[in-house]
Amino acid sequence: MLHTLARVPDDPILGISAAFRRDPAPLKVDLGVGVYKDEAGETPVVRAVRAAEQQVLAVQRSKTYLSPVGNPGFNAGVLDLVLGADHAGRKGQAVAVQGPGGSGALRLGAELIRLASPGAVVHVSDPTWANHMPLIGGAGLKVEEYPYYDPARHAVRTDALLAHLDGLVAGSIVLLHGSCHNPTGQDLGEADWRAIGETLQRRGLIPFVDLAYQGFGGSLDEDAAPVRALARLVPEMLVAVSCSKNFGLYRERTGALLVVAADSTQAQIAAGQLGRIARTLYSMPPDHGAAIVDRVLADATLRSDWESEVAAMNARMRALRALLARELEARGTGDFGWITQQRGMFSRLDLTSDQVVRLREQHHVYVAPDGRVNVAGISPANVGHVADSIAAVLRG
Ligand code: LMR
């Protein structure tokens, strides 16, 4: 049987980290996978997470099963965190189901869509996160692209995007990045969100928001604002939430799928179906990260410490954007001010695949195959080498 299997190529993002670890060069920089890093290049355990983890371990008396829909306190906390205390006016119509990370939540959403509307097409931005298409297509759904990023202007192609949405059949799913667009860092502006919301509503399209970076673009509330506005506007929507980045819980696989339904009965039925989907895929999600998030969100002291650490990570990434743009411009390779306008962890440099390979092989600077850089991997200590290397490959 197994001889029929083809060898799998390296994952476009995780493969970069593996190649970086194998590189023996003393001066090497990993700007590949999207993990936050501090000045020392470490991905630290968030302070409030460490404290909450100790509390969880101190009081936990059992590790017996919870349920396929996960930890109820976590689900309630995430619902409030994303939709606000009033659930964007949809109390009772909005439910959260814990999933194994943001990716697991996306897959839960895709499975739910296939069950409810097997022929539905999911439209993703061009470009989008390298795992969106495999993950959603893997659930058996058709995936197509809508125009999003104009690399020449480093801007969103708003008119083309809206024209595309206007041409979709009712019931189509539109996957939107809630904040910190991956891979470009180019977010929708307020007017874009308003126009998209109006089009989704008018055309009967269903938003599926991937909210993996809440708090890394603007404040936690600012990054949730587009989701809340959409929830007030459209009858149905899905939101895949990740706690990997803003809680730093990457390997604990902590996330949730939020479903906003037309009424509370449909919301409960959807939650029941999601529980069944989870049960047949992995039975139930891991609890450790969810128990930690539940505690952080419920405890005022931990919560305020967490909020200030998220704000500090955000501020540091903004400063690194400015530093990188300055250092690149100082090498006379063009205008890089656009990097400072983009948000979150990523920007995509205009590099050919050959330049990406030369960056890695000649300069030991690792970026994603499409030229995406994780700005959190920049530091005052390595920015000189990074800028020299990028300038060198751009000069040819
Ligand atoms: C990324 O885009 O680098 C992150 O979301 C990590 C991942 O799983 O790809």
General description of the model:
It is a single chain. With 396 residues, this protein is of the alpha/beta class. Helix content is 46%, strand content 14%. The chain is built from 14 helices and 13 strands. It has helices at residues 14-22, 47-59, 72-83, 101-116, 132-137, 158-166, 190-203, 220-233, 264-281, 288-298, 300-330, 338-341, 353-363, 383-395, and strands at 29-30, 94-100, 121-126, 142-147, 149-150, 155-156, 173-177, 206-211, 237-242, 254-260, 346-348, 365-366, 372-374. The chain has a seven-stranded mixed sheet, with helices on both faces. A two-stranded parallel sheet has the order 1-12. Strands 5-6 form a two-stranded antiparallel sheet. Helix 2 packs antiparallel against helix 11 (300-330). It is globular and about 60 Å long. (2S)-2-hydroxybutanedioic acid (LMR) is lined by residues 13, 33-34, 129, 131, 182. (2S)-2-hydroxybutanedioic acid binds at residues 13, 33-34, 129, 131, 182.
Largest sheet strand order? 2-10-9-8-7-3-4
The tally of strands reads 13
What do the pLDDT scores average to? 97
Largest sheet: 7 strands, mixed
Helix content: 40-55%
What would the principal axes of the Cα set say about the shape? globular
Distance between the termini: 48 Å
Bound molecules: (2S)-2-hydroxybutanedioic acid
Order of helices and strands: HEHHEHEHEEEHEHEHEEHHHHEHEEH
Number of helices: 14
Estimate what percentage of residues fall within beta strands.
Answer: 5-15%
Radius of gyration: 21 Å
Structural class: alpha/beta
Low-confidence stretches: none
